[in-house]
Amino acid sequence: MFKQLVFIATVFFAMPAVAETVRVKDLVEFDGVRGNELVGYGLVVGLHGTGDGFRNAPYTEEMLTTMLERLGVNVTGEQLRPQNVAGVFVTATLPPFARSGAQIDVTVSAIGDAESLLGGTLIMTPLNAADGDIYAVAQGTVIAAGASVEGTAASVTEGVPTSGTIPAGARVEREVDFEFSSLERLRMALRNPDFTTAMRLEKAVNQFFGRRVALMHDGGTIELDIAATGAVSPAHAIGLLENILVEPEQKARVVVDQRSGTIVMGDAVRISNVAVAQGGLTLRVQEAPQVSQPNPFSPGDTVAVPRTTVGLEQQEGSLAELHSGTTLTEVVEGLNALGVSPRDMIDILKSIKAAGALHAEMIVR
C-alpha cells in the first residue's frame, strides 16, 4: 500500500486595474424601475415516458384530474397512470413597465421524479406575484437544457434535463399599478454602496446639468430633483443622466475560493513589508507484507509478517521578503517569487492578513 501527502496546484487570477469610467446606468438602480418575480404551478405533457410517477407525486395526478374535469372529461374514480405528464414550477420576471399583451420568457423546473422535460409542452399556467394576483399566463413548448440516456447497467446525464425554458412563453395579462411619471423626486441606489463613488456621481450629475439637481444622502443613495433638471418627465431626466460617465471607487478585496483554490485580488490591494517562509512536506508509507510458512509436514501456521517502509521528505524552506506593494503587479510578483502553488498561497495570504500586513478585506468562500 502506498500513501502520499501532496499539495494540489490550482489557478491564480488577478483582477485587472479598474480606472475607467462607467455609465450611471451601470452603477445604480433607479427608484421604481425594477422587475417583479412571478411563480406558478403547472403541468408539462407530451413527454416520452419520462414524466412523474403518480405514486411518488400524487399532486400531479390531482392537478391532471382537476384540469380534465374543467375541460369536461369525467375521470372520477379512475386511476390515472400516464408516464408522459410532469408537475413543474414555472418562474418568470415581470420587467418594469411591462404592458398587457407583452411576452416574457419563463423557466420550467420539475418538482417530482420526472427524468426529463425534453419535448414536453407546458399547459396554460397562471403566474402569480407576491400579492397573490395573476399577472401573466404561460404556455408553450419546453426547451430542455440537457439530455439523459440510460441502459441496463449504466446511465449518462448531460446538463439538467429536468429544467428548461420557454422563450416568450408567457403573456402579460395585468400591469403593475405604478405612476412613474408623477414622481417629483427620484432616488438612485448604488449597486455597490461607496461614499466616494456616490460623491463623484453627485458631482458629475450636477456638472452635467449646470446646477444642483442631485444630492447624496448616504453612501448608497443619491436623490434627484426632477423639476430642477428641466426635463418634462422623470423618464426624460433618466434618459439624460444614465449615460453620464463616472469613475467608480472600490474597496480593496481579496476573494478566496477554498474549494477550487481560486484567488481574485482587486487593484487596490496593498501589502506592507513582511517576510514569509514556506516549505513542503511529503510523507510516504509503503506496505509490503511477507508470508511466512513452516516447512512441509512440520508443525506451525502460515502467517503474514508486516513489512512497512516509512519515508519523510522535507523540501528546503524559502524565506522571502514582500516589500510594500504600490501596485497589484508588485504584489503578485512578490507572491510568485516564493514559487508556491495557489493552494499554498491561500494559506500565506491568510497568515499575512493575520499579521496585519494585508490591507484589504479578505472574503473566504
TrEMBL record:
Its main location: other. It is found in: Bacterial flagellum basal body. Residues 1-19 form the signal peptide. The keyword Signal applies. It comes from the Bacteria. Keywords: Bacterial flagellum, Cell projection, Cilium, Flagellum, Periplasm, Signal. GO terms for biological process: bacterial-type flagellum-dependent cell motility. InterPro entries: Flag_FlgI. GO terms for molecular function: structural molecule activity. One of its GO terms (cellular component) is bacterial-type flagellum basal body, distal rod, P ring. Assembles around the rod to form the L-ring and probably protects the motor/basal body from shearing forces during rotation. NCBIfam families: PRK05303.1. Belongs to the FlgI family. The basal body constitutes a major portion of the flagellar organelle and consists of four rings (L,P,S, and M) mounted on a central rod. This is Flagellar P-ring protein. It comes from Donghicola tyrosinivorans.
